[in-house]
Design goal:
Layout: E1 11-14, E2 17-20, H1 24-33, E3 37-41, H2 45-53, E4 58-61, H3 65-68, H4 80-93, E5 98-102, H5 112-124, E6 130-134, H6 138-146, E7 151-156, H7 162-165, H8 175-191, E8 195-199, H9 203-212, E9 217-220, E10 228-231, H10 233-236, H11 254-270, H12 287-290, H13 310-322
The chain binds 3-methyl-2-oxobutanoic acid.
3-methyl-2-oxobutanoic acid (KIV) is lined by residues 41, 60, 62-64, 102, 197, 199, 220, 230, 232.
Length: 323
């Protein structure tokens, strides 16, 4: 068996379509060709499968899961082990999209060798194809790339810096800070980052950086001029229980859908309307006729014999005697 596939990426059958596997070099090629990169977060098997089958190019197992899945106030609390657990679930679902795992707060902020060791775990133990790190950590990016670990950078509003920023505030609002951001983006690109997320910055800054940078940019709250866009899945489908930020567009209302389904189910259970006879398993005839179909079996309480329908028992005895 050959371990090497020299084709540009094997096409995979997805929901009737045949689309090539997305790789890190494929993102750069998309930028060259001016093809927008679609990206979304996913944190579990079911949503990752939907997102992949819908043809999204990049799936980020974002540390935003700390908030939208685990209910924390910010992203700081999520651990490497929790991120690995969710990345494995996503990995099992995804065939085509590039799977990127977010390195959580604290997992790459100490010695570079610790950051590399933690990143290795995401590829080795969870099947991620790249990791994402926040901030202009140029030395770490270089070390990761040397260790054959593809890296997505993340600049601008970096949620792991919430305390330093004093909240989730739009960044790069002055000429000096835009120039600094641009310098950071170039430094990450030169160190080998394969793509850079630009979050929460003015459209003009994101557009200028995107136009100048050879590396693809993926925007969130950064306007339409980036090479791609990413949103948090739960924002897209209204599952966050909070007002949407300005940059979020809600494409569906899963909250309303789930709420009404769950309420309807509860009502049906309370009114004995679920499950129906058709949704029940049955004994084969003629044994089925032996048992009462009184739904609450109230006669049977403390009297197991009462479950058996006496008329049917009589009928069956006659059938047996006549046979
Ligand atoms: O954790 C996250 O979801 C992110 C985004 C870029 C959306 O970092």
């Amino acid at each position: 068996m050959s371990l090497t596939d020299f084709s540009a990426g094997a096409p995979l059958a997805q929901g009737g379509h045949s689309l090539p596997k997305v790789t890190m070099p494929a993102l750069a090629e998309m930028k060259r060709q001016g093809k927008p990169i679609s990206a979304l977060t996913a944190y579990d098997y079911a949503t990752a499968r939907l997102v992949d089958e819908a043809g999204i190019d990049l799936i980020l197992v974002g540390d935003s899961l700390a908030m939208v899945v685990l209910g924390h106030e910010n992203t700081l609390a999520v651990t490497v082990d929790e991120m690995l657990h969710h990345t494995r679930a996503v990995r099992r679902a995804v065939h085509r999209a590039l799977v990127v795992a977010d390195m959580p707060f604290g997992s790459y902020h100490g010695p570079i060798s610790d950051g590399v060791a933690n990143a290795v775990r995401f590829l080795k133990e969870a099947g991620a194809e790249a990791v994402k790190i926040e901030g202009p950590r140029v030395e770490l990016v270089r070390a990761l790339v040397e260790a054959e670990i593809p890296v997505v950078g993340h600049l601008g509003l970096t949620p792991q810096s919430v305390h330093r920023m004093g909240g989730y505030r739009v960044q790069a609002r002055s000429i000096d800070t835009v120039l600094q951001l641009q310098a950071d983006a170039f430094a990450l690109a030169a160190a080998g980052a394969g793509a850079i997320v630009l979050e929460g910055i003015p459209r003009e800054a994101a557009g200028a950086i995107t136009a100048a940078l050879p590396t693809p940019t993926i925007g969130i709250g950064a306007g339409p001029d980036c090479d791609g866009q990413i949103l948090v899945f739960h924002d897209l489908v209204n599952l966050t229980f909070a007002p949407a930020a300005k940059f979020v567009r809600r494409y569906g209302d899963a909250s309303a859908l789930f709420r009404s389904a769950v309420e309807h189910y509860r009502e049906d259970v309370e009114h004995h309307a679920f499950p129906s006879d058709a949704e029940s398993y049955h004994l084969p005839e003629p044994a089925r006729r032996l048992f009462s179909i009184d739904p609450d079996f109230s006669d049977a309480r403390d009297n197991p014999d009462a479950v058996v329908n006496p008329d049917a028992r009589e009928e069956m005895n006659e059938e047996i005697n006549q046979a």
